[in-house]
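Newbie here. two chains, one complex. Structure please?
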Amino acid sequence: MSANPVGFVKEYWRILLLAIFIAFALVALFIPGGIMADDSLVGDLEEDEANQSVEERMTNIEYGIGLDGGTRVSAPPTGMMVDNIDLESEQHSELESSLYTELGLETADATVRHHEDEDRYTAEVFVDDVSAADFAAVIAEYDADVSEDDVENGVTQDTRDEMIRTIELRVNEAGLSGGQVYQEATVEGSYYIVTEVPGMSPEELRELLSDRGDVQVVAYYPDEDGNQTNETVLHGEDDFSRVGVASYNDEHGHNYVPVNVDDTEDADGNSAASEYQAAMNEYGFTSEGVQQCGIQDHEAGEFTFDHDQPQWCLLTVVDGEVVDAHSMGDSLGNSMASGDWANDPTFEMITPTQQDAHQLAVNLESGALTAPLDFDRQQTFSVEPALADQFKTYSLLIGILSVLTVSGMVFLRYRNPRVAAPMVITAMSEVLILLGFAALIRMPLDLSHVAGFIAVVGTGVDDLVIIADEVMDDGEVSSQRVFESRFRKAFWVIGAAAATTIIAMSPLAVMSLGDLRGFAIITILGVLIGVLVTRPAYGNILQRLLTDK
Amino acid sequence: MGYFDVPDISYTRYTNRQLAAVPLAVLAVALLILSGSFLITGTPVPLGMDFAGGAELTVQTTSSQAEIEEAFSVEPDSVQGIQAPGVENQYTVQFAGVEDQDAIQELSNQAEAELVQDGDNEIVQQESTASPSFAAQTQQTALLGLGVAFAGMSVLAFLLFRTFVPSIAIVASAFSDLMIPLAFMSIADIPLSLGTVAALLMLIGYSVDSDILLNTHILRRGGDFYESTYRATKTGVTMTVTSMAAMLVMGIAATLFGVELLASIGIILFVGLAADLMNTYLLNLSLLRWYKFHGVRS
């Protein structure tokens, strides 16, 4: 052939391009760390888990839950909202309390948000047993323009963002890496929150998602008239600045979560810590109330609120349920009474069991789920790791069988290995490049992607047959010019076919049809890589093999 | 072993009406089946769990198939043993169209309670549930997706050929390519799932391939009509038959292994591609021949 390197590149640039792509794909697939080394993900793993996974993994391919085991739960947030409410700024909290009192809501079940950039207010309630009419009626007291028709199902983007953050924190707290939380829009414009966690069973994940996780510390004490009263003294993530891990106190034999109460002072010089301290002193917890709590039967795990003696108890309340009740200790009481405690505001939140302690730590750390998820409208998908491993083997087997079938057909049709062999190799290199690409962008592969790979091989071979027939049309490929002209003809058909496939697949790539998105994305990518890189290269290979006899 | 050759069909022996009659008759039968099924059951094709709500469980148990059928409060639509190499005692249990969300949630607990564990393996190996309202949402999205894809393909066909008859030939044969496998699903009682929707979309892409090839050869190249047709057929039939073979192998293997998604894609594409062979080389071709010999001049 031509000794001139420029001429060589000009004539065979398609093959060279293919070679470069294959080289990149191989690096992305097999060199640990790949092209874009990103150790941050591995760093999150437990030490031994990381070592194990490095040993197990031959390639940089990441697997989704369908091929690796795990659970995915999709469910919409419960609630309804009214947008664009016209309010004076001082009415903000008034509206919120009206919602609570007039609709009879529990804590955390309503919120009014101010969107500063557009100076509008939104009101949301996170329960499903309030009617839209009642909800609108409360708001209409403040903004007469609001009617029942303004009530939308669903919650605001802010609420969904908060929910996603909370769920992410919970998944991380559970010690499992690789979890994903995101929202998906439906055709009707409502949203689902999707949580995917590898290595978790559906029961575990549903439990993690169904707990609202609203933690309060309630003071239970006799007021001036001697009547026992409840008063929330610490609330949720707002009042705690740091939450430790669930621990066990050997000395006193209890499970607890060490917490720091927020001591950031506001404009008046008050902080959550100083207010808590003041409340404890005022209610008598640090004087007559020290060690005066006997309402909890620790053996039975029950509480009695029917007692003769006055009680000073600090109740830990999660989602409206009392988890634990304990008294003020001697030393803590003393340091509060002297006012020193607020300078180093830490204490231990005691829980009955280790599991409760862990749960409490998770809830305190992640905060409450702004709106509960509506499990009546959920979808769950879960695969055991063992079955997922089987699926990996099956996918590989099915893939190999399909490629063998295609190869067999092509050999039978052309009877000429010079035509058929490069066809099979080109089709397979397409899959290789796609796998490399998936590894590069860390796309987790699932069964739907495998289906996409097979579809790509299918369209790939179709196109290669078109190229082969066109290029070999009417005998010998005598010159470069003849080849180029025939190749252009073939390319028109291939390009048109590729465009239709991409158009047919693109709705799936953007719509939320779960599994099918992966299939569509891989098919579109495969068709693009095929038409732009691999299939033209096949033409070149064929030209070389047919002319250079 | 015989070689695979593309036969030279002597189109000259048949009139356009004769050629088009066969695919149109098949399409009519398909539409009849779909509308009949719609009248009887309320849906043209049986809806699977993805679109009707329900559950699909893969269980590993030493209980017998009959025991599995008895184990649930809702009667399963099907219990199918998985026949993969090295795998025993695995079954796929399907429940479609369960209206009660709580009943759906309970199914996996019932499996754990009623079935006998096989060694250390978890009983419920795979669990996939969708509440009826989620499924309704999915159904809507899928319909919209199919509609948009088909419309997009049609627009592109018109853009590519810019004349009515060849473009409508592509659209008509793609339509028929979708209806025939749907009718097949209705008869063979294959429920519509996300996998089958993927296959139908894929079919839009595949079906257009051979149509574009035929149209290009006949309309854009010089030479005799039958010569162009023969060349296009040779390439096109090779393409389609190769894909059909791959899909058949994939469909059978995936059915045996219990990989539902791949199985439905394989089977539906196989049927659809077979329909495409007929539609392209009888329906589309007759339209093109009419256009080439009569349509252009008038």
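Moderator note: Chain A touches chain B through 74 residues (CB under 8 Å). Chain A has 17 helices and 18 strands. Thread marked as resolved.
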